[in-house]
Design goal:
Chain lengths: 343, 343
Amino acid sequence: MTVTKIKNMEEFATVSGLSRPTVSKFFNDPQSVRPSTRTRIEEALERFDYRPNIYAINQNRQLTKTIGIVVPYLADPFFAEIARNLETRCIEEGYSPSLFSSHGRQEQENDILETLRSMKPAGVLMAPLGRISDKGLVERFCNDVPTVLFDSKVEGVGHVFIGSDNMQFTSMMVEYLNRTGDAPCFFEMKTPANPNARKRRQAYIQAMERLGHQPKFVQVDGTGWEFEEIGHRGAMEAITHDAFETSTVLCSNDRLAIGFLAACYQKGVRVGLKKDCHLRVAGHDDHPFSKFTCPSLTTVAQDYSAIAEKSVRRLFELIAGESDAAPSADTLFEGKLVMRDSA
Amino acid sequence: MTVTKIKNMEEFATVSGLSRPTVSKFFNDPQSVRPSTRTRIEEALERFDYRPNIYAINQNRQLTKTIGIVVPYLADPFFAEIARNLETRCIEEGYSPSLFSSHGRQEQENDILETLRSMKPAGVLMAPLGRISDKGLVERFCNDVPTVLFDSKVEGVGHVFIGSDNMQFTSMMVEYLNRTGDAPCFFEMKTPANPNARKRRQAYIQAMERLGHQPKFVQVDGTGWEFEEIGHRGAMEAITHDAFETSTVLCSNDRLAIGFLAACYQKGVRVGLKKDCHLRVAGHDDHPFSKFTCPSLTTVAQDYSAIAEKSVRRLFELIAGESDAAPSADTLFEGKLVMRDSA
DNA sequence: CCTTAAAATTTACGCGCGTAAAAAAACTAT
DNA sequence: ATAGTTTTTTTACGCGCGTAAATTTTAAGG
């Protein structure tokens, strides 16, 4: 590194003995210049550490090299984990991911979309809030910016959706629970924020009917994203009032189950498969912490990295296909049964 | 909204019946124009939804309205929670936060700092990786960009640090455990990534000696940020070899404790205060999930929102104080003892 | 109504880079 | 060496906005 500070591309071109347009070409695509020229620039780059001004670059670009990533609630390790996968994949493809969390609030989600618009991103990977999303606004956004929706689908919105096959998730789990013991009741929030929850409820009902059982529900009040808290409260009440009509409980998601198991422990309700257990409990998602609950949680695993991988790949297809591609069929990943100690 | 699309500030100024410099002034500070003028612009804003091009704006600004937020590992709910607080506070102050996670890798942290440099942010809130941070690079960054370090201090680097008083955390917990039962042994990673862990170890030793007890350690191998996994493995081994010389275990952080408790449950080791319990377990941090462990985890609570609040406030002081202020003393927050069922 | 101060307008330049067109230079193959 | 091709250089314009200086308009106060 030399003392000389390079302010702009003009200066950098001079010190590397080239013209500015050539250097500009290099930064847009190193392969587009002659190997010998490339070498000269790379050498100069080591001596002078210059970086093109991103704002000046993007001002003149119709499309930037930015990818927006939007999740509904980053404090949920599930989304943190997905976001991490997405980020990594984008970087590998030479893009700069920009991460946003709606923190469970519609207003925030709307702000983020507006911000993203002005960022002229090459594309956006978005897990919408779901029920409380501003559908019209999300729809308009998807029409204007190449966007892949993942995790939670907003009906009729967006060209590309990547998610989990909730029908398969729940069917499989109900089937498993039914084979190995009592058929489960379904533990869920009364008004879930996430559309996956509604699909899982439907799937539960269908699966139970198919097996000749009557669906049974235990529903908890509560809004927001503090699912553990809600699950805990709901379980405490249900246990106190002995509200379970069966010895098996299927939770709509693992975070509810985590709260549920904590309540069971506190109330002295033994959970698991052993002879002296009163209850079996299962969940959905294979949350990062489900391995460490007491007992460890039997659940259906979402394939995080597959969803991330596929989302990014579909986004780049969308970006590449000049004309906005026809709305494609949703991609739904099947889940894997993870048999642990709780059921 | 009208059909007319506004492309730039010139056009927008025309439709609002004003000149571009006036409109420009408005966007930089709405208070700087006459109320009647402000109203006219705001009305036009509703009819035409125009937003200044952020890239063009930032190109000509020495300092942008961006605040960088860097955390070492976003999949850790502790950092997700802190980040959420920081984001919210920044937005309230009229800045645009930009969130980055190092994902536990030095290379990534370095890249983020380089990216941030080119973003010309007004300031940066950074929780460094700690031990594996590139100290020289972080130092240089802090000298060039107004930066507040939080959570984990890199010795001798940065002008402002906001964190927790680990000495007080651990002292208090050791004191409490000693008063209510056996003095604790210390459960930790052999080579912790985070400097807080080292401070806690020292504090543990001092506290034990002050109380006339000999410090005892159970140390686990393992690197990375999968603390629950590491804690679980360590506890399984320790229990198998009956490696505890005392009936009380103080974990270096809650995530290790979560894994620890899971292992205890699996091994049939009863944890808690009741007569039939073999072990008491405590942690540090009051992780968002510590309330839902089995049994619920006794710990020392970090004051998330206070740290966030203070960090943001100090950053804005740094930004406001034209000349780079003299290195100020660290701000350390005391923790609160959270007595739950595990100890 | 006139004086003053405050605010808005006009005019004009610059930021750092993308990019197009024409000319010059550097390679490649014969 | 020469014709033909590829790459680089020259030249020049534009992007959308910040911002400064000089001028004109507006509002306020006596």
